[in-house]
Amino acid sequence: MSNVPADLKYTKSHEWVRTLADGTVEIGITDHAQHALGDLVFVEVPEPGRSVKQDEPCAVVESVKAASDVYAPLAGEIAAGNPALADAPETVNSDPYGAGWLMRVRPAAGAVAAAELLSAADYQKVVAAEGG
Amino acid sequence: MGRKTPLFALHQELGARIVDFGGWDMPVQYSSQIGEHHAVRRSAGVFDVSHMCVVDLKGPRVRALLAQLLANDIAKLKTAGKALYSCMLNERGGVIDDLIVYFLTESWFRAVVNAGTRDKDLAWIRRHAAAFGVEVIERTDLAMLAIQGPEGRAKAAELLAPAEREAALALGVFVGRELGRWFVARTGYTGEDGFEIMMPGADAAPAWRRLNSLGVASCGLGARDTLRLEAGMNLYGNDMDESTDPFESGLAWTVALEPQGRAFVGREALEAIRARGPGPKLVGLLLEDRGVLRSHQKVLVPGVGEGEITSGTFSPTLERSIAFARVPAATPARVQVDIRGKLLNARVVKPPFVRFGKSLVT
């Protein structure tokens, strides 16, 4: 059974969202997602300053087998990409909710609020429906 | 749901992730694909390759049939047990399949063909076999285990009775023989030493468990793919198919145009292709920038033209990305690859990338 922390918000496409004290949101992929992908060998994160729309592909995680897009859970401007992943993409496997974060986004005015995304309980149902 | 090998229940019990491969439900990985890859390079791993199709060809004129069907020359097989790797071509010189054929007796050869091409291969072989009076027997009763890695042969030999053990360990490279109820061959698809063992389906699960208890890692098709790519071995459907010929697929070494009198299917087409001069070629690529090469990415050859990656992956041994690409004949040592709109630098190298656990590229 995969780990789904109760204090985070989620998307159907397996991203998690954490609201930080400065109002930006930190985004990564869930434990279920990293497990399904397998050993990650390359991660491409967006450049700071880039504007992203909700559901726009903005990062790529690559396992030995395949490349998968990561989608922006909400609209905004990229505040940071995790620079540590270039040398250690496997951090996403070992610590998906911590050191394995992918990017931080400053939400756009009028963007879907993080609070409106899936709760941990709702995301558990998404995972269960996929047989995970 | 796809077809299942006799080991399917065991794969599930071992927690394998199952995927469809050529119509078969096969294990792609058990725990970590990279871990399974390293197990084979450093000690030993076992793969279920029972989805591959074993075909016995029997009859006094079987050698004549194979001389016509195969682009490689069956006359190279002079001693019983010896195997030959060959393409089977259509009249246009396109590759119907690549296969291994073992010479067992003058009236019995055994071919092993790919799972995904099984039905068309059998139809093609049967169509030609009729004129030679050769019987084509699909051995669906057999399972096949590949035990690969520097410790693979020694571990696998422990499954055999003492007298057979000695005979198995004495097998030369690319040679197989029947030992009791099993057919043991010193072949593989990983760039390491090892055996491929064909056995009655009911023997497969106990053999697998025994290998696990001896420290041989269960390995899935994911690791099989990274191992074969590092080893410079083609995958049918990726690196060649009916629309490509052996010359543009890195397989010229398997085509025997000598002796000139041997009329094999596809010969005329290959001679015409050769007369036209150098065509596209299959090369190895080593990515110098960060990223992962994947099949169908575009290769840019400045001043020459374009090519395409046919197989690409992250190489666990080299810890960088490697690929095969079909590129123009005049391609120089450096090219660029278009990965999601970014042009990354790659170096052209001659496969294999890795053999017997060691990197062959610098």
Provide structural commentary:
- Chain A has helices at 31-37, 91-94, 120-129; strands at residues 9-10, 15-19, 25-29, 40-44, 51-52, 57-63, 67-71, 76-81, 103-107.
- By secondary structure, chain A is an alpha+beta fold.
- Chain A has one domain (10-112): OB fold (Dihydrolipoamide Acetyltransferase, E2P), CATH 2.40.50.100.
- With 362 residues, chain B is α+β, with helices and mostly antiparallel strands.
- Among the domains of chain B are: 8-49 and 140-230, 2-Layer Sandwich (Gyrase A, domain 2); 278-359, Elongation Factor Tu (Ef-tu), domain 3, CATH 2.40.30.110.
- Chain B has 9 helices and 21 strands.
- Chain B has helices spanning 8-13, 33-42, 62-69, 118-129, 152-157, 162-169, 201-213, 221-230, 267-275, and strands at residues 17-21, 24-29, 45-48, 53-58, 83-89, 95-105, 108-113, 135-138, 142-148, 176-179, 182-185, 194-200, 217-219, 281-287, 298-301, 305-315, 320-327, 334-339, 342-349, 354-355, 358-359.
- In chain B, strands 10-11-12-9-3-13 form a 6-stranded mixed β-sheet. Chain B has a 6-stranded antiparallel barrel with strand order 14-17-16-15-18-19.
- The A-B interface holds A 38-39, 41-42, 44, 60, 62-67, 86 and B 28-29, 32-35, 222, 226, 290-292, 294, 313-314, 316, 321, 340.
Total beta strands of chain B: 21
CATH C-level category of chain A = Mainly Beta
How many strands, what sense, and barrel or not for the largest sheet of chain A?
A: 6 strands, antiparallel
CATH architecture of the domain at 8-49 and 140-230 in chain B: 2-Layer Sandwich
Q: Percent of residues of chain B in helical segments? A: 10-25%
- Class derived from helix and strand content of chain A: alpha+beta
Question: Summary?
Answer:
Chain A is of the alpha+beta class.
Task: Record the SSE blueprint.
The complex is a heterodimer of chains A (about 130) and B (about 350).
Chain A: E1 9-10, E2 15-19, E3 25-29, H1 31-37, E4 40-44, E5 51-52, E6 57-63, E7 67-71, E8 76-81, H2 91-94, E9 103-107, H3 120-129
Antiparallel strand pairs in A: 1-2, 2-3, 3-9, 4-6, 5-8, 6-7, 8-9
Chain B: H1 8-13, E1 17-21, E2 24-29, H2 33-42, E3 45-48, E4 53-58, H3 62-69, E5 83-89, E6 95-105, E7 108-113, H4 118-129, E8 135-138, E9 142-148, H5 152-157, H6 162-169, E10 176-179, E11 182-185, E12 194-200, H7 201-213, E13 217-219, H8 221-230, H9 267-275, E14 281-287, E15 298-301, E16 305-315, E17 320-327, E18 334-339, E19 342-349, E20 354-355, E21 358-359
Parallel strand pairs in B: 3-13
Antiparallel strand pairs in B: 1-2, 3-9, 4-7, 4-8, 5-6, 6-7, 9-12, 10-11, 11-12, 14-17, 14-19, 15-16, 15-18, 16-17, 18-19, 20-21
Helix pairs in contact in B: 2-8
